[in-house]
Amino acid sequence: MAYDRKAQCAGKHHPILLPSRSPELNPVENVWQYLRANWLSNRVFETYDDIIDAACDAWRRLIAQPQTITSIGMRDWAHIGQTS
């Protein structure tokens, strides 16, 4: 759930309900999409532990790139009308 910044500045909180089934608006989904696209796709894993190891390795690679994490969450179209 997002909040209206103008209302928040006025001391009021008005939820902005996001549409269901819209993963492009969910930052967690964007992170998983990035991990799959860059480090987890087109691979076959022999065991469950291999899957866990690959996911952990991908996560470690991602957290070593804070600028990438920031860019994943920033979508120009999602900030239209927002001021800093």
Query: What general outline do the C-alpha atoms trace?
Result: elongated
Helix content: 40-55%
Question: How many angstroms separate the termini?
Answer: 20 Å
The helix count comes to: 4
Mean pLDDT across the residues is 80
> What is the count of β-strands?
2
The fraction of residues assigned to DSSP E strands is: under 5%
Strand arrangement across the biggest beta sheet: 1-2
Given the helix and strand composition, which structural class is it? mainly alpha
Report on this model:
By secondary structure, the protein is mainly alpha-helical. 51% of the residues lie in helices and 5% in strands. The protein is built from four helices and two strands. The chain has helices at residues 5-9, 27-40, 48-63, 66-73; strands at residues 2-3, 15-16. The protein has a two-stranded antiparallel sheet with strand order 1-2. The radius of gyration is 17 Å and the shape is elongated.
Question: What's a concise summary of this model?
Answer:
With 84 residues, this protein is mostly helical.
Tags for this model:
single chain; 84 residues; mainly alpha; two-stranded antiparallel ribbon; 4 helices; 5% strand
